[in-house]
Structure formats: structure tokens, C-alpha cells
Design brief:
106 residues, mainly beta, Immunoglobulin-like, 4-stranded antiparallel β-sheet
């Protein structure tokens, strides 16, 4: 006869990193476009996380300017002319919000 053993299984949150991207401002005219995006990210897990978010900037336009509120535990790196990468370090159960804006004249 087989011996019955009790097994304890600990299941974590399926996705420890959760985020939301919302376009909070959008202005478009004939030769102009301005877009502001707000990112909300949170770590639902018990361990610290490092998240990376890539943002693509439009490849059209003669004059493109970018701004962000990314600071403190957030850094931004220009990967190429049209891609930025945000790196956010979150402690367990921590939330972070930042904005990113681009303005294009063409």
C-alpha cells in the first residue's frame, strides 16, 4: 500500500509586475502633434523587481522634442533616435507613476 504524504504548495501572484499605459493628452493639428502618456506600474510580489519599458517615438517630423517625469528609482536611456527605454526599480508592493511626452512638428 502506498504511503500518503502531505504536500504544501505555495503559489505566488501570476504576474508580479502590473502596469497601465494611458494617453492623458493628445493634440493634433495640420503640422503638429503632442502626446502625453502616463505609465502606472506596480510590483505585487514579495521581491524587488526591475522593469523595462520601451517607448517608440514617431519616425516622422522635422523637429521632435521629448520630456519625461521619470526620476528617483526610474531612469531613461535613448536606445536609438526613435526608441527610449525606461528602467524602473520597484521594492516589494511598491507603485510608481511617471509621464512621457513627445512633441512633433512636420
Amino acid at each position: 500500500m502506498e504511503r500518503v504524504k502531505n504536500v504544501t504548495l505555495t503559489v505566488g501572484t501570476l504576474f508580479d509586475a502590473v502596469g497601465e499605459k494611458v494617453i492623458t493628452k493628445f493634440e493634433a493639428k495640420k503640422h503638429y502633434r503632442k502626446v502625453e502618456t502616463t505609465y502606472n506600474v506596480r510590483n505585487q510580489g514579495k521581491e524587488p523587481l526591475e522593469l523595462r519599458i520601451e517607448e517608440n517615438i514617431p519616425v516622422y517630423g522635422n523637429d521632435i522634442s521629448v520630456k519625461t517625469s521619470c526620476k528617483d528609482n526610474c531612469s531613461v536611456k535613448k536606445k536609438n533616435a526613435f526608441v527610449r527605454e525606461f528602467t524602473i526599480k520597484l521594492k516589494a508592493k511598491e507603485k510608481y507613476e511617471f509621464t512621457s511626452e513627445f512633441e512633433v512638428r512636420y
